Amino acid sequence: MPDTTSSSIKVVQLNVARRSVAQQDLYSTMIDNDISVALVQEPYTFHSTVPAPNTLKVISCSSESSPRACIVTSSKLSVQNQVQFNSQFVTVCSITLNHSVLNLVSIYIPPRVNTRNEIVSIDPFLSKLQEIFSQLKGFTIVGGDFNSHHSLW
Predict the structure, then answer these.
(1) Is residue 125 within 8 Å of 88, Cβ to Cβ?
(2) Phi-psi region of 9 (alpha: psi -120 to 50; beta: other; left: phi over 0)
(3) In this predicted model, which residue has the larger pLDDT, 4 or 116?
(4) Which member of 80, 89, 116, 141 has the lowest number of beta carbons within 10 Å of its beta carbon?
(5) Do the beta carbons of residue 106 and residue 69 sit within 8 Å?
(6) CA dihedral in degrees (77, 102, 52, 6; nearest 10)?
(7) pLDDT at site 149
(8) What is the pLDDT of residues 78-101, one digit of tens each?
(9) 64: CB partners within 8 A, 6+ apart
């Protein structure tokens, strides 16, 4: 498992498309390769929770609906869930490494056209990211599935 006394960690991002096999492969890859953090979109859920082995922690919103974004960390990391920012589509947490704060953001933005063939604006999601960035201290890593083209990227 990752060395938590180090000043560096490995972070990956993946949309597992709500597939149990893809999520299990991610977990195995994390454990086998000392990956400390995964920023996950469209996680596989069981009864609205994201299952994981004991060596990993899952951070996600606590609501009745299944999360569309979550963060999976090594259980050896000291993680602070930033619940004030979390929703079904955004998960935020912070870790401290060598007295420095590292913020982690996992975001899922649905496709531009929903199942009712209505155009979905990404502006509320971008506003949410702006709000998060304005309030967090320290360094921030964002990983997500944005499902959109936008001038910001």
Answers:
(1) no
(2) beta
(3) 116
(4) 116
(5) yes
(6) -40
(7) 60
(8) 999 999 999 999 999 999 988 899
(9) 48
